[in-house]
Amino acid sequence: MQLSELFEQSHPFNYAYPVQNTNDIKALQQAFQWAAKEYGSSLPMPEVLVANHEHMQRAARQANHHTVLMGTVYGWYSQQYDKIFLSDQVHPSRSKKEAAIVVHEFIHYFQFHDDKPNDVEALENEADDYMMRYFKGS
User: Fold this and answer.
1) Pairwise CA distance, residues 19 & 4, whole Å
2) pLDDT digit string (tens) for 90-138?
3) Which of 33, 39, 65, 67 is geometrically suited to a Cys-Cys bond with 3, CB 3.0 to 4.6 A?
4) Spatial contact of 130 and 31, defined as CB atoms under 8 Å apart
5) Cα angle vertex 15, ends 32, 97, to 5°?
6) pTM (2 decimals)?
7) Which 8-state DSSP code applies to residue 117?
8) Burial class (CB in 10 A: 0-12, 13-18, 19+), 53
9) Cβ atoms of 85 and 75 closer than 8 Å
10) Which residues have C-beta within 8 Å of that of residue 84, sequence separation ≥ 6?
């Protein structure tokens, strides 16, 4: 079972809410524009929803999600809802590192719409590469 499926079962979609902080909305838009340009996508920006951080961690542990091995899950792209869930501890306007988390999820959004093969490691590596390029400013 995928992380998003577990999360959506254990924490219903209607408990997540849209980003409300104006500065975070602007930072999301800037991160999306960068990601879309670098990836070469003309897709519209997906909805980004805020979810309870602790609930995300429980769902990730239940799913044995690969990122749990590396640390904490701060966001993910849900194929089922075609939306991005972001931890309530992440504020993209606060730092470039936090905005880079969203870039990573935007890349997953593009990958899904490009019908990339479902090779989790390759998809994660590609998203990580974009995230690091964004963080480093290139």
Assistant:
1) 19
2) 999 999 999 999 999 999 999 999 988 878 889 989 999 999 999 998 5
3) 65
4) no
5) 35
6) 0.85
7) -
8) middle
9) yes
10) 46, 47, 48, 49, 75, 76, 77, 78, 102, 105, 106, 109
